[in-house]
Amino acid sequence: MKGYKHTELGWIPEEWECLELSHITQNERPISYGIVQTGLPVDDGIKCIRVLDIVDGKIDDQNLITTSHEISNAYKRTVLKEGDLVMALRGKIGELARATKSHEGYNLTRGVALVAPKINYDSEYLKQQISSPFFRDYLMAHLNGSALKELAINVVRRIKVPIPKNKSEQLKIAEVLSTWDKSIETLTQLIAAKQQLKKGLMQQLLTGKKRFEEFKNEKWHYNSLGDIASIRRGASPRPINNPNFFSHTGRGWIRISDVTFEKGKLLNFTSQYLSDLGASHSVKVEIGDLIMSICATIGVPKIVNIPSCIHDGFVLIRDYETSLEKEFLYHFIEFITPKLADSGQPGTQRNLNTDIVSRIQIPVLSLSEQKKIAEVLSFCDNEIIDIEKSLENCKLQKQGLMQQLLTGKKRVKV
Question: What is the CATH topology of the domain spanning 4-165?
Fold first, then answer.
């Protein structure tokens, strides 16, 4: 390829280098992890960054722990300066954040590594490179430990990075990708704001604290769900490991992971299917049925959108149409999900049973008011889903751009 050279990382432009991270970082401040023992919190002590303080590519300094000046001085090479990178070695493995002016003088804990680039290498460019899918895959393939997975310092030091010799090109690439990061951050914040707005509306509308004008004079009272609906627990074909119960097609076999994975009120697919024999030993649910999880992750409602079956970790709720609007009931269950999770039976994992579900107190009001409340909350849901789709699309576009820019396949004008 004209203008390109082949390296162990693939083809890169002739004007680029392929260097180990240890050659890019400062000799006097090599890649190192932080303080092993922080001791008790110290008033006016040195703040230390833990893995949990690295959040969405930034340092969250709201709840930092502290250590003494003496202990921090013993780890001088991991004292932060503006532009340094901090990298999670466990938990959020490989996640990076860039230190700002306000973080100068902070130190790190054992689970976090310092990456301090030399002056001719841009830290934001390095942050984008090491955050790319290629390097994430590399890091995950080189973990140590069995129960507690951890990234060794030597692995981090040996990471080979393709990088332009011209720092101006590094800065330009980082600027382009950082623009996408800002868009992703804006969309993420917008989703959080919309979710908070919906939460507030649920608190007002589903408790009667706020009523629509045309319904203000109508009575609002509560009734047990079991008095206005039929509730049936699911069932599993036994033994569950019998392959004759499963198939590649047929009725979906709804698992807890299916209802937690898919966002929104509808359940549109399952990762497993039952054979006719398996379905005959379970509880069938049809399109439009409302189900709720009652074990592991408790109180998650879903409106089924494919012919399926549920096991005994779910209940099927039917025959409520004369008293309840389906989407109103869905939103009310969603509203009380935290309360349901706390009311489960103790054991190896908390769970509900049909008696507990039957005793859930449901507000009984006119179907017209229920419909209007559901419309407002569903509108919020649709807004959130649309923004989430934009966010996912933005992330995919950035990922594609990273593949082009961080390998030199697409060059920027400097």
Answer: Adenine-n6-DNA-methyltransferase TaqI; Chain A, domain 2 (3.90.220)
